[in-house]
Amino acid sequence: MKRLVLALLFAAALLGRAASAQTARQVAVTFDDLPSTHGDLARTRDLNLRLLASLKRNGVPAVGFVNESRLYRRGEMDARTALLAAWLDAGHELGNHTFSHILIDRHTLEEYKEDVMRGETVTRMLLGERGRRLRYFRHTQLRTGPTEEYRRGLSGFLRGRGYTVAPVTIDNQEWVFADVYARAIARGDRATMKRVGDAYVPFMESVFDFFERLSVETFGREVRQTLLLHANEINADYFDALATMMKRRGYSFITLEEALKDPAYSLPEAQSKTGLSWIHRWRLAKGLELKMEPREPDWLAELHRAGARRSN
C-alpha cells in the first residue's frame, strides 16, 4: 500500500512538472506585409480591423511589419496610414519590412539598403508621434543575404540604423493557405473557403508540434517562440481559432522584446540562401542536420499553382 501511494505521488509529481512545462510555453506573434497585400482598400480595412479585434479578444501583443509601398495608392494614403496608426493605438508595435518587399537575391546590397531606408518614413513618423522609436526589422522572405559577405554587410547596416532583427522560429506555409483562401473569396467560392479554413488551424498545429520537438532536440528545451503570420483574410477569419489552439498547447502571449531575451537568440546562425526558421539556422551552425518541416497538403499546393497560372 505504501509503495502504491509513493508511486501515485511520483506520477502526480511528473504530471505536475509536465503541466508546468506546458504552461511555461511562450510565443511572440508577428504579422508581415502590413497594411496587407490586397489592392482593395475596403478589404484591407476590413481585415485589419478584424485582426485587431481578434488580438484584443485574445490578449495578444503583436508586431506588424510594414511595406510602406502598400500605402501609396491614389487618394487612399491617409486611409491606409490610419490603419497602421490603429495598430499602434491598440498597443501593438510596428517594424520595417522594407519599402517594396524587395527580393534580396535579385538586388545588390546597396539597393537593398536603399529599400530599407525608404521603408522607414511613415512608420518612423507614426511611432515618433507617440513617443516611440522604430526598432525592429524583418527580412523579406526571411532571407538574410545570398552570400556571407552580403549578410554581414546588411547586418552591420541594420545595426547602424538602430534595428534589432526580428527572427522567426515558427515559420510555416500560411501564405499558401492565404493565397488560395483570398482567391476563393474573390470568386465567391464558399466551398473552397471552408475546405481551406478547415485545414488551416490543424496544419498550423502540426507546425507548432514540429518546432517544439525540434527545439527540444536542439537545445534540450523549448525556446520562446516567434511566430510568423501575415496580415490577410484567412487570419482575420481564423486568428481566434489559432489563438485557442496555442492556448490549448499551453502558450502565453509575450512581446517580441520578451521573446528575444531567450539566450537562444544570441547564438550564431548559419548562412542560408533560403528563408528558414532560426531553429534550423542554429542547428546548421551547430553542425546538426536540417529536418523537413510540415508542408501544405497536396490538394492545396495544386490550387495555389493553378491560381498562379491563371494570374500569369
Supply the key terms.
alpha/beta, disordered N terminus, 5-stranded parallel β-sheet, 10% strand, 312 residues
Structure description:
54% of the residues lie in helices and 10% in strands. The chain has 312 residues and is of the alpha/beta class. Helix 2 (41-57) packs parallel to helix 9 and helix 7 (174-186) packs across helix 12 (298-311). The longest helix has 30 residues, at 190-219. The chain is globular and about 50 Å long. It starts with a helix and ends with a helix.
Summary of the model, kept short:
The chain has about 300 residues and is α/β, with parallel strands linked by helices. The chain has twelve helices and seven strands.
Number of strands: 7
Radius of gyration: 21 Å
User: What is the averaged pLDDT score?
Assistant: 92
Shape, per Cα inertia axes: globular
Beta-strand fraction estimate? 5-15%
Uncertain spans: 1-23
**Count of alpha and pi helical runs:** 12
Largest sheet: 5 strands, parallel
Q: Estimate percent helicity.
A: 40-55%
- Elements, N to C (H/E): HEHEHEHHEHEHHEHEHHH
Oligomer: single chain
